[in-house]
Specification:
The chain has 506 residues and is an alpha/beta fold. It is built from 17 helices and 19 strands. Helix 13 packs across helix 14.
Length: 506
């Protein structure tokens, strides 16, 4: 073929012609970020099995193999593969998996490497679906037995985009922790039933195009482009947990607008049960952010809320639901955004709760200096960020590990996490040395919701008694995935997390 790079549309008539000619189509699929000898041998073996070898590649947007991946963008990967003599055609896939590509190509043979032969070891669970798709079109699946190499291992070793100190941390971590054990422990969280208590937030993004300053006013004008709504706050926390745990119950407050409640319900995971309390004297919390569409830069925000304490009637209703639900769950996750849901009576109830309580208390522009972790007299796991730590400790400057240790002792918290943005995270657990973990993110799309994701997944890890070093590591892996997601467009996917961990530690 003169031009090996095709689209599914331009390949379709060629496929029909090849079929008429009785040619056997062979199909390979992968990311192929760094083409190494193992790939060449794999393609050579695949080509021998038929007449025409078609290779499809994973697009950049669906690459989930660790920070900085793919190292080589989809254009370069297409060009590289098209120069290999054994490959007759290369196509950029449009979807996260190979299944749709298989339906388009309809190969007689679909060829994978020997590392995929044992389907039970496939983290994604896609191999079985791929086999089903191939056989639907009368094809079969072959596994080559060529010498194996690992792109992730080679890239981590020679092309790492992480700082030298992070690479050193990972080298040390690999020597002590097994990937298989970490992933299995995360999978074992699927036995848990979790109760989430917190304020639901409807996040709205208004994408705009900045214009010039208005000629008669000292303001910057923008042109509306589009908008998007997300289920945030405690709803996002519940959805993150739902991917890892058996069942999640969510207790939250909503205003009288039925449309807001229906939207939130439509975004809940299938295993999330909502216990909603309607508060007639205030709206469902809405945070509307205006963004520069091109750079995803937030320009300003409008909040719709009433952050005074909820009424006694609503308070009693929440307490009654808590009484009914606490015993049915393994542990409780509390997300206090400081917008009026957590009255003194509800806080007292939660600190006296006989269950394990994981607590996240957030300071934001609406309650700066007023919603502090010190409002709670007890919990089993507390997660706050560095500015919230300083406010709670009333110390503006100083050594963060020392300040955290002092606040931990003062509040008598057995497990205390401080997220530090670009400086990673700090975890202090009773009887263990403080554990500091660097960040693993190299690409940031949106920071909104990343802290909630971090807290959501570390909470069951702390409850289950994971090694503190593993908790910090898992939390920062979750954070690295979360900052690549716009707001709370989707929860952190367990399979993506497993793959991220696996490739980061190769």
């Amino acid at each position: 073929m003169e031009n090996k790079i095709k689209t599914f549309e331009t390949f379709a008539p060629l496929r029909e012609q090849l079929k008429r000619e009785g040619k056997k189509l062979v199909h390979c699929h992968g990311l192929f970020d760094l083409v190494h000898p193992g790939h060449i041998l794999h393609f050579k073996a695949a080509k021998k099995l038929g007449d025409v070898l078609v290779v499809t590649i994973t697009p950049d947007q669906y690459a989930r193999k660790g920070p900085g991946r793919p190292v080589f963008n989809e254009r370069l990967r297409l060009e590289t593969l098209s120069s290999i003599q054994y490959i007759d055609c290369v196509i950029l896939n449009h979807w996260p998996t190979a299944i749709e590509a298989i339906h388009n190509i309809k190969p007689e043979l679909y060829v994978k490497g020997q590392d995929y032969q044992e389907s039970q070891k496939d983290l994604t669970g896609n191999i079985a679906l791929e086999v089903e798709a191939v056989r639907k079109h009368g094809g079969d699946v072959i596994f080559t037995q060529e010498e194996m190499f690992s792109s992730s291992n080679l890239l981590n070793k020679f092309f790492s985009k992480l700082p030298a100190e992070t690479d050193e941390y990972l080298k040390n971590f690999r020597s002590k922790q097994k990937v298989e054990d970490i992933i299995q422990n995360l999978k074992n969280l699927s036995e848990l039933n979790v109760l989430v208590v917190g304020e639901a937030i409807l996040d709205q993004y208004v994408y705009s195009i900045p214009l010039q300053k208005a000629p008669k006013e000292a303001i910057v004008t923008t042109r509306f482009d589009s908008d998007e709504s997300f289920a945030g706050g405690s709803v996002a926390v519940a959805n993150h947990l739902a991917g890892f745990c058996k069942k999640v119950s969510l207790i939250s407050c909503f205003g009288p607008d039925e449309g807001h409640l229906q939207f939130i319900r439509s975004k809940l995971g299938s295993n999330v049960e909502l216990k909603n309390v309607t508060v007639d004297d205030r709206p469902t919390i809405v945070k509307r952010r205006f963004l520069d569409k091109t750079w995803m830069t937030k320009m300003f925000e409008v909040q719709f809320l009433n952050d005074s304490d909820i009424s006694e009637t609503a308070e009693n209703e929440i307490l009654a639901i808590l009484d009914q639900q606490i015993s049915r769950h393994d542990f409780v996750v509390v997300t206090d955004f400081g917008h009026g849901m957590f009255t003194e009576r509800i806080r007292d109830y939660l600190v006296q709760c006989p269950k394990f309580v994981a607590l996240n208390v957030q300071t934001n522009s609406a309650n700066l200096g007023f919603n502090l972790a010190t409002k709670y007299r007890k919990c089993n796991y507390l997660s706050i960020d560095e500015p919230e730590l300083k406010l709670a400790a009333q110390i503006q400057y100083g050594d963060i590990p020392l300040i955290a240790a002092q606040l931990k002792k003062r509040l008598n918290i057995p497990n205390f996490m401080v997220t530090r943005g670009p400086k990673g995270s700090l975890f202090l657990a009773n009887g263990r040395e403080p554990n500091q973990t660097p960040i693993f993110s190299t690409k940031i799309v949106d920071r909104t919701g990343a802290g909630d994701a971090f807290f959501s997944i570390t909470a069951p890890c702390v409850y289950r008694g994971f090694d503190p070093e593993v908790i910090g590591f898992v939390g920062n892996c979750v954070g690295a995935l979360a900052v690549e997601i716009v707001c709370n467009r989707e929860p952190v996917n367990p399979v993506n997390l497993y793959k991220f961990i696996q490739h980061l530690l190769k």
